[in-house]
Each structure stands twice: as C-alpha cells, then as structure tokens.
Design a protein that fits this description.
The complex is a heterodimer.
Chain A (H helix, E strand, L loop, with lengths): L7 E6 L8 H11 L5 E6 L6 E3 L3 H6 L7 E7 L3 H13 L18
Antiparallel strand pairs in A: 1-4, 2-3, 2-4
Chain B lengths: L1 E4 L1 E4 L2 E9 L16 H30 L1 H14 L2 H14 L3 H17 L4 H4 L1 H17 L2 H4 L7 E5 L4 H5 L6 E6 L7 H9 L3 E3 L4 H4 L5 E5 L4 E4 L3 H22 L15 E6 L4 H7 L5 E5 L13 H14 L5 E4 L9 H4 L13 H7 L1 H15 L4 E5 L5 H20 L9 E6 L2 H5 L1 H5 L4 E4 L1 H9 L17 H17 L2 E4 L7 H9 L4 E4 L4 H9 L3 H12 L4 H15 L6
Parallel strand pairs in B: 3-4, 4-5, 5-6, 9-10, 9-16, 10-11, 11-12, 12-13, 13-14, 14-15
Antiparallel strand pairs in B: 1-8, 2-6, 3-7, 7-8
Helix pairs in contact in B: 1-2, 1-3, 1-6, 3-4, 4-6, 12-13, 13-16, 16-17, 22-24, 22-25
Classes of the chains: A alpha+beta, B alpha/beta.
Chain lengths: ~110, ~575
C-alpha cells in the first residue's frame, strides 16, 4: 500500500473530547470500509506512523486524542469522496456521516 | 527447585514431564508443528476467529438490549479487531513461515499489540490493553478448545498442569497417559476435584500460579500425600521421591489385600462400604475395590457431553449398565443434581447471582418436570432390571419431597399402564444436605424411605463457605464442631426412627473421619471406589467401643483445628504406616 501515491489527501483535527477511542474508531473503520479505495491515516501530531484506515487495531494505535491532526489519504476510484467523508467525520467529532446513532460519544468502558 | 503447596485430591506420588494445558492467563509455550500440519493450524485459527466473532456479537447484542448501546460500544471494537485483516494475516504469516502453532502465533501477535498500548501516554488508551488481552484470551480459548483432545495423543506418561480443568476435560483423563495433575484453581470438593479423585491418580489443586511457573517439558513431582508439588526437583529430591513412589505402590498393594474382606470391626460390628460413581462403567470398579453396591450414582454427569440432555432410552441404558456393573448389589440413583456449578449456568445467558442458593438440584428438576419425568421413567424401567433405589438431591422441605415422590408415582402409573415392568416397592429417599433438612430430620424420618447425608453441600451451607472459592475454602472443613454436632443429631434421629442412614460426602472417604463417623453411629459409608480399601483396613483394626470413645471426645472440642489434630493422632495410632 505504501508504494502507491495517494490520489486524495486531507488533514482533519480530532474534534471530540475523548479522541479516537473504541466507538469513534469503529465509526471510522466502518465508514472507511464502505469505500473501495485504500485508506491510510497518519497522526501528524503524534509519532507520524501511517496505518490502514480499515484496521480497527491499527486505528486505535494511532493514539489520536482531541486536537490531534490526522492526515487521511486515499488511493482508488472513490478516493476523493472517501477522504472528504472521513475527514468530515473526524472534524465533526464523530457526530455525523456514520452508520451509528448520533448520540453523544462516550468513552468505551 | 520450587515447592508449591495446594490441596490434595488423591494421595500418592507421580513424577514426570509436564504438559501445560494452556488457559486464559497462561503464557503459551513456543510450539511448532510439522509442515504438513500447517493447513490444519490455519483452519483452527480461522475457526477460532469465526467462533470469537460470533461470541462477541452475541455478547454485544445482549449488552445493547439490557444495558444500552454505550455498554456495547467497546465490544463493537472487539468485533472490529477480530475482523481486522492485518491482524489475521500477521498471525497466519507466523504459522506459515515459522511453523508456529496457532495458539503461539496468536498469542505472540496479540502480545506485541499489548506492548504497543502499554507505551502510550494517554491513560485511557493504555486501558485498551485490557481489551486486547480479552480478545487474546477469547481467541486462545477458541483455538485451544480442542487441546484437551490432544491429551489423548500423549505418547508417554505425563503430568498435566493447567489453570483449571472443566469437569468434561477431567472426565476424559482416564483415557489419556496423564499420571498426575496440578491445577491453579479449585477446592477440595469442587466437581473437578471429585472427578479427579474418582480418576484416582495423584493430584494437587488450588496451587494459584503453578501454570505460569512451569513450561512444557519440565520435570515435576506431584506429592498428593503431602499436598505439594515440586517444580524442577534437584537430584537428591528426585531420588528420595523415586523411593517414596515405590513405597506408595507397595502400600496400595497391601491395601488391595483387604479389598475382599468384609468391613467388620474387631468386635464384630458390620459396616457397609458403598461406592460413589459418576459414570456407569465405574460401578464395576467399585465392586473390584471391595464396595458392596452403589451408594451414590451422580446421574447429572450424563449431561457432560456435547449432545446435551440424555434421552429416556440413553438413561435407561446407562442405569442398567451401572446395575450390571454392581452385580447383585443395590444401586442408589440420585436424580439430576443440576445447577450451581453444573451444566445449567453455562446454558443460560443471565447467570444467577448466587447459584449455590439458586435454581439447582431438586428445585431445578421440579421446575423442569418434563425432563424430571423422563429421568424417573428411565430409573423406574431400570428398577425392573435390578435392585434400584432413588433419591432426590437438596431436599429442603417436606413439600419438595412429597412433590418429587408424587412425580415418581405418576411415572410409575404411566409405565404400569404401558405394561412396563417396574419395582413398585422401589425405595424413595432423600439427600440431607441443608441445615433446614437437618433441623427437620425427625419429620423427614416419618416420610422418607432412607436418608443419605450429603456432607459436601451440608458443610458449605452450614458454614456459609463456598467450597469452590479458593479464597475462603480453607474455612471449609468437616472438622468444624457445628458439623459434627449436626451429624450426631441427624444420625441419632435416623437410628431412633429406624431409618436407613448413610453418608456420601467426600468426608466418608477420608480415613481421618472414618473413626468418628462410626462412633457417631453410621453403619453405611459411600465413597469414591479408590478410598474403599483404606477405609476398610481402618475399620477392621478398631472396635466400636474405641470409635465411640473417639466420637465423644471429638464432640467435646471447641475448634476445628483441635478436632482435626485429635482425629489425625487417633488415626495414626491405629494405622501408623498409612502415608496419608
């Protein structure tokens, strides 16, 4: 995956209080998995490791907390749509664009 | 060399190489598989992933319904992780490239992730390590679910070390080359312990952390007689134990000479020693060990199989097998003692908060009358085949006994109408195992055919100690003065009423209590077949007068420790060469 050039990129600031925890991660992964493009995510504010946006485990390892900037890159036919949708999800604080109910996010137990 | 202390389930010495049955918190030892087994390991991994996903989804579903969506969130992430292709691929890679066993590969990969979470600065994220551990355990459990089966393929005598064993796993030990068992978990009267005892080989349980202290291939000594295990013994210890091993074999050999002599005291008082069995084939073992019939057939073990509830015909066949195995001697069939730690809890999603005080034993049967009737029909049909008695577990009130007895008569009428031959005079008895039943023993004596005192439960209810909880199980003791006094009163009431009374708890098989029980007036003891020869030897060496004097003295003490010490001294006086 790393040898392909991204066709769409966008940075997004994590908007919700508890950052990328269990539920937000799953919202992100579920949404990312709906696209055909490969999705890569980097925590620009963190250790700058790039992970697969469709991987529940790797996304959790991003260590993205409130205020972290994550770079979302996509490669594939629906790259632009994917990046936009995912970036919106992150900046909105995981309040929209997901298959989950819009109830306020809470920290996974 | 490390010496660990636990609780003994069976006496004797076993020395051998260890196999660790991997369980939840245990580090999985490095194990590789042959090249041609790699596809099998990959399938095993895939099935474990599928099963784990199903489990978590069910769990999340249940949480969502009962506790709302927030509670279920974290399990949605678990599902996400279990469906994560990267995770699965890296485990598969380990199996394919290194030939690692699926469990080892999964454990290594999951533990690498755990380390990553440990290094995080956000404390909330560090907490996720628990989730990763949880996922790892679930996966391992599903991978290793079949590993008890692997025990069947051991090529040489081996010592089994595990965190815990399920009753099912324990029940199959006899078919393996396992010669001794050491477990972290357990208390002396858990059902796993009961099964281990009937298996008869040396075992020590309640060792807390033995499974993490040892890895496969190490040498271990199990000293069931002194309730300890020795990990990685030094040469002199090993030599000493080889000698003890031979001495123990000699002692058991001597005991066997007593097997077929009657259990009579020196002053000609006759005692009947009976067998407790879990499986019908054990009836014959009981006879071989010198038992005079089956005092307790724990029929609920018919449920310990993947197919679940046994049919009427299957039960009938099992009961007939026990009758045939027991020769012409009577078989006392106890109706299903389900609930508490046996069977029902695993099947219900909403576990009881306090199963020992919950829907168990006769309560469960009376609430599942269809199942109960099927069992009673099978028992009654078997009564046409040979001498059978039937008794109900955990009778706590006269109403329960009457209802259960009436159900027997209903089933009997049905069978008679169908023209099936049954013993219409079948003796119907009860197990006395609650304080309430002990207090009302005189009333019960007017209605029951016989009483069998189940001390395992009686002690636990009397002393308010969960015998399966290793944190308090040391408070669980038959030597408690209150236990002895209740036994005295119950036995006395039965004797006065002329009611046949026996005792079938673990206590009956422990030589430590043989003399006091005789002295209290018991003339029938039912125990694991393996214990019969030694108890018989003890009985043949004393007079009833001696036993009565010992019982009187034992009743005069104020603490369990005094009682235990006194009984130990008295037993040693009679049987000094006894290594127990």
């Amino acid at each position: 995956m790393s040898d392909t050039n991204p066709q769409a990129v966008r940075d997004a600031t994590v908007g919700n209080r508890e950052g990328l925890h269990a539920r937000p991660v799953m919202q992100f992964v579920d949404l990312a998995s709906k696209f055909r493009s490969q999705i890569r995510v980097t925590n620009v504010s963190g250790r700058a490791e790039t992970v697969d946006g469709k991987s529940a485990m790797q996304m959790m390892l991003l260590e993205a907390t409130q205020g972290s900037i994550v770079r979302i890159e996509a490669c594939g036919e629906d790259a632009q749509v994917a990046v936009d949708a995912l970036a919106d999800l992150v900046t909105s604080g995981f309040k929209n664009g997901s298959s989950h109910s819009p109830s306020p996010p809470s920290v996974g137990s | 060399m490390d010496i660990l202390r636990g609780i003994s389930v069976a006496p004797g010495v076993a020395i051998g190489e260890v196999v660790v049955l991997e369980a939840e918190d245990v580090r999985i030892p490095y194990r590789t598989v042959a090249k041609d087994q790699i596809p099998e390991e990959l399938t095993r991994l895939k099935e474990a992933f599928d099963a784990s996903i199903r489990e978590v989804q069910e769990q999340a579903e249940w949480l969502r319904e009962h506790l709302g969506r927030d509670a279920a969130n974290v399990f949605e992430w678990h599902v996400g992780v279990l469906k994560d292709d990267h995770l699965r691929e890296s485990i598969e890679e380990k199996i394919q490239q290194e030939g690692a066993a699926a469990a080892y590969a999964a454990s290594t990969v999951m533990r690498n992730y755990q380390r990553r979470f440990l290094q995080m600065s956000d404390p909330l994220l560090v907490e996720r390590i628990r989730d990763v551990q949880d996922i790892e355990r679930r996966l391992l459990r599903n991978i290793l679910g079949a590993s008890a089966e692997d025990l069947a393929h051991l090529s040489k005598p081996t010592i089994l070390v595990s965190h815990d064993l399920t009753p099912t796993q324990t029940a199959h030990l006899a078919e393996t080359k396992v010669i001794g068992v050491a477990l972290d978990a357990g208390a002396a009267t858990s059902h796993t312990a009961i099964l281990l005892r009937s298996w008869g080989r040396p075992g020590v349980i309640g060792l807390k952390d033995v499974a993490t202290r040892i890895s496969g291939g190490d040498t271990m000594i199990i000293d069931g007689t002194n309730q300890l295990v020795i990990v990685d013994p030094n040469p002199s210890t090993l030599k000493e134990y080889r000698t003890r091993e031979r001495a123990y074999v000699r002692f058991s050999g001597e005991l066997n000479e007593f097997q077929h002599l009657p259990a009579v005291t020196r002053d000609e008082h006759r005692v009947t020693l009976l067998s407790n069995i879990e499986f019908p084939h054990e009836a014959a073992i009981g006879v071989a060990k010198g038992g005079e019939g089956i005092g307790l057939y724990r029929t609920e073990f018919l449920f310990l199989r993947p197919e679940g509830a046994p049919s009427e015909d299957e039960q009938y066949e099992a009961y007939c097998e026990a009758i045939d195995g027991a020769g012409n001697q009577p078989v006392t069939i106890r109706t299903f003692d389900l609930g508490a730690d046996k069977y029902t809890q695993q099947r219900s999603y909403e576990q009881e908060r306090n199963p020992m005080l919950g829907l168990r034993s006769i309560r469960y049967s009376l609430q599942n009358l269809d199942m109960f009737k099927v069992q009673l029909r099978a028992v009654l049909r078997a009564s046409g085949h040979g001498k059978v008695r039937v008794m109900f577990p955990l009778i706590n009130s006269l109403m329960e006994f009457r209802q259960a007895k009436m159900t027997v008569h209903d089933a009997m009428e049905d069978l008679e109408e169908e023209g099936v031959r049954v013993d219409s005079d079948i003796e119907i008895g009860m197990m006395l195992e609650t304080p309430a039943a002990a207090i009302q023993v005189k009333e019960f004596c007017r209605e029951v055919g016989f009483i069998s005192i189940g001390t395992n439960d009686l002690i636990q209810y009397l002393l308010a100690v969960d015998r399966g909880n290793e944190r308090v199980s040391r408070f669980y003791t038959a030597s408690h003065p209150a236990v002895l006094r209740v036994l005295r009163d119950v036995i006395r009431a039965c004797t006065q009423a002329g009611i046949d009374c026996s005792l079938c708890g673990e206590m009956a098989g422990r030589p430590l209590y043989t003399l006091v029980l005789l002295g209290l007036g018991l003339r029938q003891l039912s125990m694991a077949p393996a214990n019969i020869p030694e108890v018989k030897k003890l009985i043949r060496l004393v007079t009833m007068g001696q036993a009565q004097r010992i019982a009187r003295r034992a009743l005069s003490f104020e603490t369990d420790r005094q009682v235990t010490n006194y009984l130990r001294d008295e037993t040693r006086k009679v049987l000094p060469e006894d290594p127990i």
